[in-house]
Structure formats: C-alpha cells, structure tokens
C-alpha cells in the first residue's frame, strides 16, 4: 500500500472580465482565504483588499460567489454584505480597503469551479473584482 499525500491547491486570483458591453478593465482585488482551497460545507474567511478610484460608501456591497463554470451560474446564492459600515464609512478613493468576511462554502462543490469576488455600487459599476478557477 502506498501512502498518498493530498496535493494542496493554492487559489490564484486574477482579473475579472469587463462587464458586458464594456472594454474597461476592472481593478483587481487582492483576496486571501483562511482555508485554501475552500472545503465543501465549511466556513472560510475571505480577506479582500484593494484601492479604488471611487469612494466606498454605505451603499457599496462586497459580493462573493461560488460559480459552476460548466453551467455558468452560481452554485448557491452569493454572499452579499455591506463593504463598509458605521464609523468606517466612507472609505475615500485611493485609501486602502480591507475587509474579512466569513463565507459558508456550498455542500455540493464540483471538482472545478470559479470564485468571483467583487466590490461595487451595482453590477455595471464595479470598483474592483477578482476571479479564480479552483
């Protein structure tokens, strides 16, 4: 019998494609995971950071989605939280933004899927985004 050691993948985030109808590249967020890669059915802390050309306000959202790359749809409802609250708002354009959010990974993670992390005021107005194939 051979002892097999599982290979640990490291999730590498990069640029998201521009929104449909746009050719403008969205600023890339830096994302790190407490458990990398996420484990199906378990909580994982996503730490998201970046600098933006617009203010982060109490209307700005942080969205984290697990996406089925074959079906091109979310595996579960995306996690959506305020990007800043209370005395931490607003975060002025050009200042460092950092937020850590705990996310429950889907129970039914496929072998290969995508992670999409975005900060913005609306889908056509993203401040930053990161994309990874896991």
UniProtKB/TrEMBL annotation:
InterPro entries: Ig_E-set (IPR014756), ML_dom (IPR003172). Residues 1-10 have a biased composition (Basic residues). Residues 1-21 are annotated as: Disordered. Residues 13-134 form the MD-2-related lipid-recognition domain. This is Phosphatidylglycerol/phosphatidylinositol transfer protein. It comes from Funneliformis mosseae.
């Amino acid at each position: 019998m051979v002892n097999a050691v599982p290979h640990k993948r490291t999730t590498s985030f990069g640029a998201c494609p521009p929104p449909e109808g746009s050719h403008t590249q969205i600023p890339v967020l830096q994302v790190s995971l407490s458990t990398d890669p996420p484990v199906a059915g378990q909580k994982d802390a996503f730490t998201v950071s970046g600098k933006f050309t617009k203010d982060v306000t109490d209307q700005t959202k942080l969205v984290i989605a697990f996406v089925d790359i074959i079906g091109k749809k979310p595996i579960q409802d995306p996690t959506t939280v305020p990007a800043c609250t209370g005395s931490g708002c607003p975060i002025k354009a050009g200042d460092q933004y950092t937020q850590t959010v705990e996310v429950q990974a889907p129970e039914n993670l496929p072998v290969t899927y995508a992670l999409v992390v975005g900060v913005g005021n609306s889908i056509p107005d993203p401040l930053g985004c990161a994309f990874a194939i896991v």
